[in-house]
Amino acid sequence: MDDSKSKSSKDVDIYRDTPVRLLGYANEVGESFRAKIGPRWVLATYGLSTAYVIADTIDKSIKTYNKSKVNGDQIEKTAYAATDAFIWQMLASVLVPGFTINRACALSNYMLSKNVNLKASRREWLVICIGICVIPFIIKPIDHSMDKLMDNTLRKLYTLE
């Protein structure tokens, strides 16, 4: 087997470089369907997204702990990695996109409610479709924005080797 292929497969972060990343966006789907499923189920989708965030945080913590065994600075580096992963994921996967989709759906619902010829059930489905369609367009800009935010705040306080 080619060494470059085996190395690249080891470098793949399943929580950020694979479709598993989409679990972090479960709450956006929930926000899109809010009018049909109700707030209790939307809250459940936030639970799924938060479980994804915790899984990624644990994964980054374990990897950092194992890498820093030789230097003896495991605790400090592991704490930084856990904090960084948790804050980044909560912002990039849960809070900012959830708010964005919630507001996109609310605005769509408001605008569509002005059309007196549109039945409420059709308006709800249109709002759901708009919310779902917005999700792919916000993922990369939010991820990049959160990288910049973290690079200019928390990550300036610490350095990982």
From TrEMBL:
GO CC annotation: mitochondrion
Alphabetical GO biological process terms: mitochondrial fission
A Pfam match: MTP18
Domain of life: Eukaryota
InterPro entries associated with the record: Mitochondrial_18_kDa_protein (IPR019560)
Keywords attached to this entry: Membrane, Transmembrane, Transmembrane helix
Transmembrane portions of the chain: 125-142
Transmembrane helix recorded as keyword: yes
Homology family: Belongs to the MTFP1 family.
PANTHER family: MITOCHONDRIAL FISSION PROCESS PROTEIN 1
Name of the featured protein: Mitochondrial fission process protein 1
Taxonomic lineage of the native organism: Eukaryota, Metazoa, Ecdysozoa, Arthropoda, Hexapoda
